[in-house]
Structure formats: structure tokens, C-alpha cells
Write a structure and sequence with these properties.
Elements lengths: L1 H12 L3 H18 L4 H12 L1
Length: about 50
């Protein structure tokens, strides 16, 4: 999950928004499995920063 988030951050910095969103959405899929209540909030914040 951390790897997907980091890849999303890299692609966001490279201005490859479609790829960034792909990886950020992968984080959203795995967040419930990690049982980390902060990840859905983090996901929403990072997705909004892409645009």
C-alpha cells in the first residue's frame, strides 16, 4: 500500500495525472485490509491534489 502511494506521488510530480490516480485508487482498494483509519482521508487528500 505504501508503494502504491509513493508511485502515485511520483507520477503526480511528473504531471502524469492518469497514472497518479491509478496508483492512488489502488491505495483506496487496499486501505480496508490494512485496518488503518487514516488511509481513506489520506487517499482523498492526495487525489484532490492531483488536479
Amino acid at each position: 500500500m505504501f508503494t502504491y502511494n509513493n508511485l502515485g506521488l511520483v507520477y503526480r510530480r511528473l504531471k502524469k495525472h492518469d497514472s497518479a490516480l491509478y496508483y492512488f485508487n489502488r491505495v483506496k482498494e487496499y486501505a480496508p485490509l490494512a485496518q488503518r483509519p487514516d488511509w481513506p482521508t489520506l487517499h482523498t487528500k492526495t487525489v484532490h491534489q492531483v488536479w
